[in-house]
Structure formats: structure tokens, C-alpha cells
Amino acid sequence: MKYLLAVTAICLTTTAHASPLTGDDFQITCVSDRDGSEVTLSRAGGADQGYIHTDKIDGDAMIFPGVNSLTFMHIEDQNVMTFVVHFDTHDYDLAVQGPHAGNDYGVCGDAIID
Questions:
Q1: Which residues are bridge partners to 62 per DSSP?
Q2: Tens digit of pLDDT per residue, the chain (114 long)?
Q3: Contact 43, 49 (CB under 8 A)
Q4: What is the three-state SS of the chain?
């Protein structure tokens, strides 16, 4: 009986701490350290599909889980944008490959979990 109560308590504690890493719906805004531009990343339905929004890009993104991170990949024309959010440090790294190649990094706020 004690074992059953302990397992139930652990399950309730785990579900009470929602996280973007667990597949929950969320939105997070990140700011570039280089130029102050903002990017908003979101996921709805707990799926491996998300959305990326900047002043120049609006579109769907595939989401890949990592260790304490999520990678958003957006492909547009000949450019591939890989945006990695590290949820343990709130940092991000961005790499763009293609004709508009470049890199960026910055800080993300807390995720707003729906």
C-alpha cells in the first residue's frame, strides 16, 4: 500500500510540473544578443510540429528533442534554419545554412505553457 501511495505521489508531482520538454503546448520568446531582434517559437498539440515567427520569417518548423533542449528546424527556399533552445540555461543558438547563411545566439524568456 505504501508503494502505491508513493507511486501516485510521484505521478502527481511529475504532471504538476509541465515543461516544453514533455510535449506540452507552449510559446517562448527569445532575444538576440547581437542585434536585439526577437523570435517567437511555439508548439500546439504537443506534437513534433511547431511554429517560428520573426520580423522576416513566419512558418512551420519541425521539432526535435535533445538533452534539456528542443531544436526547431525551418526550411524556406534554399535556407535551412536550425534554432536550438537550451531550457536549462535559457540560451539559444541559431544556424542558417544556404544563400543567407549566418549564426546568432541569445537568451530566451520563460516558456508560457498552455
A1: 49, 73
A2: 444 333 333 333 334 456 788 778 999 999 999 999 999 999 988 789 999 999 888 999 999 999 999 999 999 999 999 999 999 999 999 999 999 899 999 999 999 987
A3: yes
A4: CHHHHHHHHHHHHHHHCCCHHHCCCEEEEEEECCCCCEEEEEECCCCCEEEEECCCCEEEEEEEEECCEEEEEEEECCEEEEEEEECCCCEEEEEEECCCCEEEEEEECCCEEC
